[in-house]
Amino acid sequence: MKTTKNIILATLLVFVFVGCTKDFVEGFSTDPSQLQTAEVNNLLTSAQQQTGWPHGDELARITEVLVQRSKGNGRQALAYNRYALTESNSNNDWGNNWYGGAMKDLDVIIKQGNMQGANHYVGVAKILMAINLGTLTDLFGDIPYTEAFQGADNLNPMYDSQENIYSTILSLCDEGISSLGKNGISSLNLSGFDQIYGGDLDKWIKLAHAIKARHLNHLSKLPQYNATDILNELNNALTSNSDNAVISYESTAIKGNPWAQFTVDRTDLDYVTGTPFAKMITNDPRKAIFEKMNNTSSSGENGGFYGNFNSDLLLYTFHEMKFIEAEVRFRQGGTVAATNALVAAITANMEMLGIAKSEINTYLSSLPVTSLATIMNEKYKALYTQMESWTDWRRTGFPNLTTNPYSSNLEINEIPRRLPYPQTERLYNKNFKDLSSSENRTQRMWWDQ
């Protein structure tokens, strides 16, 4: 009996094994009821959300402490006051939101869209890829790109130099503009899946020029800085607050703004307004709006413009473009033109925040004489919550910050100029950019020499 059972079992195992090597059903090698390739429209919605998330996640909170708009007040945030930044800080954003999330989806959209002739999806995806690469490289320096997104075919992608990444960003924007100028597939209309601009191609083209303007302006310390090129991009970039590139959220915790998701239910606030920033906004009509961000209630309300569940998350704004223009005009020696651009920048920001016209005029009347310090200090306030301010400080030295005033137990005696690469890269990528303990926070970027 035992022998008979063993023969039957062996026969069944052979049947199962042989069956698994054949088609799922005659004529089908895979289950036709299961989706094998995601559609580009669905991938776009996911990629946009994941593009936005890191701008309100842990790395964004860290940079807010580094530029002293926020102060760590509890738990891990206290370590940021000491510049105790570790490889584990960036594991989630690097692996889940960027390389395993937004950028992987965008790479698929570009490749699949090119095969399908979905030109508008390809154009938007390339512009979004440029945004993600820009954020990543300005936080970490050299990053994988040329050999990334290959899965098991290449588990050890090399690191592209930051200089090459910047060239790629500019090229992606140009290629994106070109793709948006071609005919699209009517059955793959952007409007229902594009959460940033609702399928408005003209605004995507403006955003591509805005991305180029920002990154060309980052080169202000380098010989290749070209004011004319920047102004040319600005002439075609965002022209009003209605052009702002934002990620929108719903009024629920699970679908809410990442800043609000972090601050809700934290009665022992992990972050409060930084002392240097608090002094700068003493007589600023935006003061209450800025301070509300760290006081979101458990219902995700009362966090104001920035900190409610349904608050928009800002990626690129019209007022940033006017601040860039003010800086470029000032560097060219055009003080009057710089002042006009500065006034337009501050006005646009305050109008976006709902400040009354009379208060705006009062504030503008008390502005110091236009200088690089004035321009950058005002930009620092207007770009509240945005990581771009850390880049601005590193390349211009404004605002004038000292080593963290909140702690006498600093791990390094200077404000960090880069973030450590994630632990996952050290463990799993043989091409990991191994830096010393000090270098992983103080090594200067290619554009910061």
Give the amount of beta strand, in percent: under 5%
User: What's the CATH class of the domain at 37-199 and 410-442, please?
Assistant: Mainly Alpha
How many DSSP E strands?
4
Query: What is the alpha-carbon Rg in Å?
Result: 25 Å
> Helix segment count?
20
Mean pLDDT: 89
Order of helices and strands: HHHEHHHHHHEHEHHHEHHHHHHH
**Terminal Cα span:** 82 Å
Class based on secondary structure composition and strand pairing: mainly alpha
CATH architecture descriptor name of the domain at 37-199 and 410-442: Alpha Horseshoe
Strands of the largest sheet, in order across it?
1-3
> What is the approximate shape?
globular
CATH topology of the domain at 37-199 and 410-442, by name, is Serine Threonine Protein Phosphatase 5, Tetratricopeptide repeat
Could you name the key traits of this structure?
single chain, 449 residues, mainly alpha, Serine Threonine Protein Phosphatase 5, Tetratricopeptide repeat, 20 helices
Structure in words:
The chain is an all-alpha fold and about 450 residues long. The chain has a domain at about 35-200 and about 410-440: Serine Threonine Protein Phosphatase 5, Tetratricopeptide repeat (Alpha Horseshoe). It has 20 helices and 4 strands. The chain has helices spanning about 1-20, 40-50, 60-65, 75-80, 90-115, 120-140, 160-180, 200-215, 225-235, 260-265, 275-280, 285-290, 305, 320-330, 335-350, 355-365, 370-380, 390-395, 425-430, 440; strands at about 70, 245, 270-275, 315. Strands 1-3 form a two-stranded antiparallel ribbon. Helix 2 runs parallel beside helix 6, helix 14 (about 320-330) packs antiparallel against helix 17 (about 370-380) and helix 17 runs antiparallel to helix 18. The protein is globular. The chain starts with a helix and ends in a 7-residue tail after the last helix. Residues about 1-25 and about 30-35 have low confidence and may be disordered.
